[in-house]
Structure formats: structure tokens, C-alpha cells
Specification:
heterodimer; A: about 120 residues; mainly alpha; globular; B: Immunoglobulin-like; 2 domains; 5-stranded mixed β-sheet; 3-stranded mixed β-sheet; binds copper (II) ion; transmembrane (chain B); translocase (chain B); membrane (chain B); transport (chain B); magnesium (chain B)
């Protein structure tokens, strides 16, 4: 069982960035047909939430989660991300990740009928 | 950049600005035509000694001068609408840049390159070797002939990010993240100024865009991430 890689370990080193530059490899979030608007704020938010939701549900080692992180880091202003990170740490982030977990389990244990979630 | 006694647009350095200039010239040619015809008729009527005193109605003339302006408006409206949609057309860009308006400077984030971030303040007027009130201490560098997306937002009040030579301008609004699409056709230095009144130093937060061929852009990125 490999140790879960921390965010710091995932950070690209300076040398890696330079090597990537030499190979003309740029990363950009590209276009998202869900957000065809000039205002991309919602897209930034959705990707930030998706990343944390993905890690809550699939664990830190689930690789596809890190795509969301790449996208939100690419398009979200740094100030927004650090504000949300602080809110996550303080537990005041305005999104209920536990609700998603309950939905995913079909409301087991909390909702005896399981109807309200519409999902089994 | 803009210079003294300049009446027209700045020279275009992006396909979008080229189209804007075409539209402007197209509308100006129609306006000149109307001005000449109406001006000629007016002066001719005023100077004429033959006054039409018995004329009370003319259906053909009424129909003509009702529909003709409509036709002219349509000829103006369609290219204008086309350009309106074209100016918000996004292309997949290999590079996203974020810019935040502050009171009173711009900050830039190149997140693809190890969180390359910097602030761009106006160079002091006494010290600058370049253009007064337009030069910044850090230039925003982008590669030429490459579609670039700028994400514009603000941390405090409304600002507006613009490069007139590229035909782009977008409000930088707190809580919004507006995109601007730039394709720079030539290398050079391009200047813009904050275009939304934002406080005392509104006039002193210029934008300097440095467009370079991709090789030199990469060199710039390397020196920036090293420092
Ligand atoms: Cu301003």
C-alpha cells in the first residue's frame, strides 16, 4: 500500500516546469461546454468543489480527482482559492460535502425510506 | 499606442481589432454618403429660388424615405452583430493568464508555471525611460500568434482591463471572472489603461502587454520563475 502522496509532493519542481517548457508542454483548462459564458466564476467554483468532493468520496489516491485541481488552479484567482481553503479549514465552507456522501450511499442510516434522495 | 492628434483607432495587432476597424470604416462610409446626400439636398433647397408652395403629399417619396433608412440600418446591424458574437468567441488556448485589479495596480498569475505571480505598478514618472503613465515595472508577457485567454477579476472595486491595439476590454468585477480572448499578431509592447473609474489613482494603473515569439516567451518565463 503506497503512502498517499501529499499535495506538496505533487507540486511540480522548478526543473520539471522548465523541462516541460522545453518540450512545449503547456497546460490550460481549455473550454468547458457547461460554461459557455463570458463569466467563468461558476466554472472555477464547480471545479474547486468537485476536487474536494472527489477526494472525500474516492480518497486521496484516486488520480482523476487531481484533474479538477489542475483546472481550478488554472482558472481560479489565487485570492479566491486561498479564501476557500481557509474556509475549508475553519469548517465554514458554504458547501455540504456530507450531503453528497449520504446521497451516494442511498441515504442509508439517515433516511429509512430513501425516497427523498431519489437514488438507490 | 495612442498618440497626440490621433483621430482614428490605434493600429490593429489582432484579428479582432482588424475586424473592428473594418466595421468602423464600413459604417463611416455609409455615414459619409448620407451626410453628403442630405447636406447637398438641404443646401440646394435653401439656395433655390423656386419654392414649392402647393405640395401637400407625395406617397412615393414618403415610402422611399421610410424604408431607405431601415435598409441602411440593416446593412449596419448585421456586420455589427456578427462582430459582437465574434468578439466573445473562445478558442481553446494553450495558456491561461489571470489578472486581478487592485486599488491601484494589476496583479498577474501564470498558474501553469509554478505559480508565477507578479504585480504591475506604474513606473514612476521621474524614473521611466519609456512612455509616461503607460509603462509598468513588470510587463505582462504573452506569446504571439497563439490564442490566449485572460481571466479578469478584481479584489476590491470595479476596474477594467484593456489593450486597445488588440481590441479587447473587460470589466474586472469582484466575484466575477470574465474572459478575454487575445491573439497577438506581432511582437511588441502594447499599452492600456484602467478603464473603469476606481478611485484616486485610477489614472495611474496602466497595463503593459509584451508580446513575443514563443521562444522568447519561454525565456521570459524561465527568468521570471528563477527570480
Ligand atoms: Cu480604474
Amino acid at each position: 500500500m503506497p503512502e498517499p502522496t501529499s499535495i506538496e509532493e505533487r507540486e511540480e519542481s522548478l526543473e520539471a516546469v522548465k523541462a516541460r517548457l522545453e518540450r512545449n508542454e503547456f497546460f490550460s483548462a481549455g473550454l468547458d461546454p457547461r460554461f459557455p459564458n463570458q463569466n467563468q466564476a461558476k466554472r472555477c467554483w464547480v471545479n474547486y468543489v468537485d476536487y474536494h468532493r472527489c477526494r472525500k468520496q474516492k480518497g486521496d489516491e484516486y488520480e482523476p480527482c487531481y484533474f479538477f485541481r489542475k483546472v481550478y488552479r488554472n482558472i481560479c484567482p489565487h485570492a479566491w482559492v486561498s479564501k476557500w481553503d481557509e474556509q475549508l479549514d475553519a469548517g465554514t465552507f458554504p458547501y455540504d460535502f456530507n450531503k453528497d456522501l449520504q446521497n451516494k450511499q442511498g441515504g442509508q442510516g439517515h433516511d429509512p425510506h430513501g425516497d427523498s434522495h431519489g437514488k438507490h | 499606442m495612442a498618440s497626440w492628434e490621433q483621430l482614428n483607432f490605434q493600429n490593429s495587432f489582432s484579428p479582432l481589432m482588424e475586424q473592428f476597424i473594418f466595421l468602423h470604416d464600413h459604417i463611416m462610409s455609409i455615414l459619409t454618403l448620407i451626410m453628403l446626400i442630405v447636406g447637398y439636398s438641404l443646401s440646394k433647397l435653401c439656395l433655390s429660388k423656386f419654392n414649392v408652395t402647393k405640395q401637400s403629399e407625395n406617397h412615393e417619396l414618403e415610402i422611399l424615405w421610410t424604408f431607405l433608412p431601415g435598409v441602411f440600418l440593416i446593412i449596419i446591424a448585421f456586420p455589427s452583430l456578427r462582430l459582437l458574437y465574434l468578439s466573445e468567441e473562445s478558442e481553446k488556448s494553450p495558456l491561461n493568464i489571470k489578472t486581478m485589479g487592485h486599488q491601484w495596480y494589476w496583479s498577474y498569475e501564470y498558474s501553469d508555471f509554478k505559480d508565477l505571480e507578479f504585480d504591475a505598478f506604474m513606473s514612476p514618472v521621474e524614473k521611466t525611460t519609456s512612455f509616461r503613465l503607460l509603462e509598468t515595472d513588470n510587463h505582462t508577457c504573452i506569446p504571439t500568434n497563439t490564442p490566449i485567454q485572460m481571466f479578469v477579476s478584481s479584489t476590491d472595486v470595479l476596474h477594467s482591463w484593456t489593450i486597445p491595439a488588440m481590441g479587447v476590454k473587460a470589466d474586472s468585477t469582484p466575484g466575477r471572472l470574465n474572459i478575454i480572448n487575445i491573439i497577438a499578431m506581432k511582437p511588441g509592447l502594447f499599452y492600456g489603461q484602467c478603464s473603469e473609474i476606481c478611485g484616486t489613482n485610477h489614472s495611474f494603473m496602466p497595463i503593459t502587454l509584451d508580446t513575443r515569439p514563443i521562444f522568447f516567451f519561454k525565456e521570459w518565463v524561465k527568468t521570471m520563475i528563477n527570480s
